[in-house]
Design a protein that fits this description.
Length: about 130
């Protein structure tokens, strides 16, 4: 996924450790997986951000991936619908956010078609280890 969208090669060791960590620490988030005919078609990860002025939790949708052969078949739509259903069962989820690579216009169109809109924020980061 990272290579396809950003040209980044990831360390399998670091990635595997990160996935195991989240699976063992659900207080930080969770994964949602879509299957078609018993095969994984796509997945995403949700992590949490506390909003003090909303007194609620924003669910960040991250690590979205749909296998190429399943794209444009409603897989992400189903994943997002499941996330929204899960959030509705909670009483403190006040919204959803995600970030998307600037050049990934296909994903941007998908997110917009599902009711998301570009936020009024710019995203800054510092990655000390890179």
């Amino acid at each position: 996924m990272a290579y396809e969208t950003e040209g980044k090669e990831l360390s399998n060791e670091a990635l595997s450790a990160g996935v195991r960590y989240l699976l063992n620490h659900p207080e930080h988030g969770f994964y949602v997986v879509a299957e078609i005919d018993g095969e994984v078609a796509g997945s995403l990860m949700v992590t949490y951000e506390w909003s003090d002025w909303r007194n609620g939790v924003i669910w960040w949708i991250q690590s979205v991936y749909v296998r190429p052969e399943y794209r444009r078949r409603g897989v992400y739509r189903s994943l997002y619908a499941e996330v929204k259903k899960m959030a509705a069962a909670q009483k403190n989820v006040c919204g959803f956010r995600l970030y998307v690579e600037k050049r990934n216009t296909a994903a941007q169109r998908t997110y917009a078609a599902l009711g998301m809109h570009e936020a009024n924020y710019k995203f800054y980061e510092e990655m000390p280890d890179e």
